[in-house]
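Sorry to interrupt, but I need a hand with the structure work. Go ahead and set the record down below:
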Amino acid sequence: MRYKELKIGVKREYLEGLEAVLTGEGFASMQIDDPRDFIEIEEHPEWYKYDYISEELAGDRDRDPVITLWFTDDEEGAAECMRAADAVKRFGEENPGSGITVSLKDSGDDSEWLYKWQEHFRPVRVGERIVVKPSWEEYEPEEGDLVIEMDPGMAFGSGLHETTSMCIKALEKHVFPGARVLDVGTGTGILAIAAALSGAGACLGTDIDGEAVRVASENTAKNGLGDAIAITEGDLTEGIDWDADILVANLMADLVIRLSPDAAKHLRPGGIYISSGILDVKEDAVAAAVRDAGFDILEIMRDGEWRAIAAVRR
């Protein structure tokens, strides 16, 4: 499939405002290229573990940030691209000092990349019983295996990443027959699927990204779990009236901190809160936020530079 690439330059002081406008218009999937991030990397080599910084990158630090959006090269994609461009134009008119620049180009065909990527995705055991396999690979289950057939598509979460595998291992420990599980930031739906296969009675997965909602819905249906798992589009738990025995959130540290007070509201006393996507340097801050939200920490799992926290609501 071919794509169009819309690049929007904006002065740094207006970046968050434009990002909020685009997100509010429904364009949740975007790339933000901000040289400010380079400065943070340069100032904290202990966090990012780099050996050297290219002079080419160093010379780029003073330019304005760029937001990139992608659209399918068809009639529907063209309409969405025009809608995004109109939102950017309105923002520029309302903020004459924002320095808005817009360019559109053909980003090419992704079919060869997708084929090469599939060559490296094989069945993998995650935890004690969960095995994740793509649809194009054969796998002979061993006794007791719980097999997830799952194609990541364009959403994050194949089970190979440390944060996902730690969440699955935590779910294996805490899911009980009939449990209600809320998966916040469901991505491919892999954690909701793992919970359902482990005995959960009902699962709800939410994600702000419409593409993730589509992929997760396809994956739950592919695994025959459409009746056990519902997938919905939404920002964290905003607008969700659903109580759970277990809430799992594989996000990133700042979002876990933001989510924690709402997680307590959606869990019964004694309910389990599993969070991940936490870099080691953020461990203490996230753990403090989880405790402050009314939880006692049961375990902090560590895999390389990544952390996952399992906690119980007081």
